[in-house]
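Quick question, first post here. What does this chain look like in 3D?
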Amino acid sequence: QVQLVESGGGLVQAGGSLRLSCAASGRTFYTMGWFRQAPGKEREFVAAINWSTTGTYYGDSVKGRFTVSRNNVRNTAYLQMNSLEPEDTAVYYCGATHSWGTEIDRGQEYDYWGQGTQVTVSS
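> Answer (accepted):
Ran it through. Tokens below.
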């Protein structure tokens, strides 16, 4: 059974950092990505990374602050979040897919999803 499990969320003050993890099981995936969704808002693309780890893609709102990485031996993706802002408050979800292309920032490209982890940034 394929499962994605996020962890690492929590409460942090503005300017602080958090590191999220997404542990996959059941199989490996070419692409793993991160999305977030705040109450009353649509799902927003955050970052994605391919198998070789040399291909990364970031949403405009997090460029320069967040870094996506993965450990293929552990079958785990990570999202290092620095300089957090209150606007980053959301439930963060990891997704997985076999593809890598121009629509990798769209949620419908992902075949599997985790349950999400809450990130709250206070001012």
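The chain has a mean pLDDT of 96.
The chain is about 0% helix and 50% strand.
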